[in-house]
Task: structure prediction
Amino acid sequence: MPHPTLRTVAHAVPAAALLLATTACGTGTPDAKPASSPPQSAPRQSATGRPTTEPSEEDSTVHIRLTIDGHSVDATLNDSATARDFAGLLPLTLDLDDFQEIERVADLPRRPTTDGAPESSDPNAGDLAFYAPWGNLALFYRDGHPSPGLVILGHLTNRDDIARLANADRVRIQPAS
Result:
């Protein structure tokens, strides 16, 4: 008598082969349509026109509004765990300091998670990012350089708003209404 495991495999293999054959040949259900991959969108470009690997705006679910020295600026957060955790901190009002004439930085009340985040990111002007080693928010008004521990959260939606960041002293960040 064959071993019980062999009997199970012997029954499972023909059933799996039959399922595979009917699916591959299109003879499954009458309304079955061949599977197709979703359309590929073009790589997202940053506000400066440089391509970026962050999820496209269609993938993003959180739109935010920054008030920079009294001016409203729209931005979109990407669909990363870090960006979702950052969104949970909103609304925030933060005092900004310049860092290396590339970005404005501010301390956050707590560090968002970096689970699943890339080890390094290459920021573009208009990007919002979390710098994990220091626990701060970075708002880039110039293109940065690859930085270990930098996690891109999102980007400003209007290229013209980037210039406002260069001299910003204070920012209020809240969900867009």
In short: The longest strand covers residues 62-68. The two ends are 70 Å apart (CA to CA). Residues 17 and 109 are 57 Å apart (CA to CA). Residues 4-25 form the longest helix (22 residues).
